[in-house]
Amino acid sequence: MNGKEVFRFAVRVVPQSVEYALQNAGLTVSSIDWLLLHQANQRILDAVAKRLEVPLERVISNLANYGNTSAASIPLALDEAARSGQIQPGHTIAAAGLTRGSLIIRWG
């Protein structure tokens, strides 16, 4: 993999994907409580959050504990955040992978 190209792709495409999902849900970036991204690397998480204007304290990350856990990264981080009480009922989560897939979750 070409790390620089992956970074550029992620920072360009992931925010577009999140914004599209939010638009389809009738929401804006300011409506979300948490941003949950594929846990590829911290630089990508930080850059995508910056591009979306989401404060870093609203980005769920477990990279420091596990590194990149591939396809399991979003479910693992979501489970940890829910079990720890970080995510509360009624919170809105924007989740996005690296391959143009995003979803909006209203936590129950």
Automatic annotation (TrEMBL):
GO biological process: fatty acid biosynthetic process
Pfam families: ACP_syn_III_C
GO cellular component, one term: chloroplast
Pathway it works in: Lipid metabolism; fatty acid biosynthesis
InterPro entries: ACP_syn_III_C (IPR013747), Thiolase-like (IPR016039)
Keywords noted in UniProt: Fatty acid biosynthesis, Fatty acid metabolism, Lipid biosynthesis, Lipid metabolism, Transferase
A GO term, aspect molecular function: acyltransferase activity
Beta-ketoacyl-[acyl-carrier-protein] synthase III C-terminal domain segment(s): 22-107
Family the entry assigns: Belongs to the thiolase-like superfamily. FabH family.
Protein name: 3-oxoacyl-synthase III
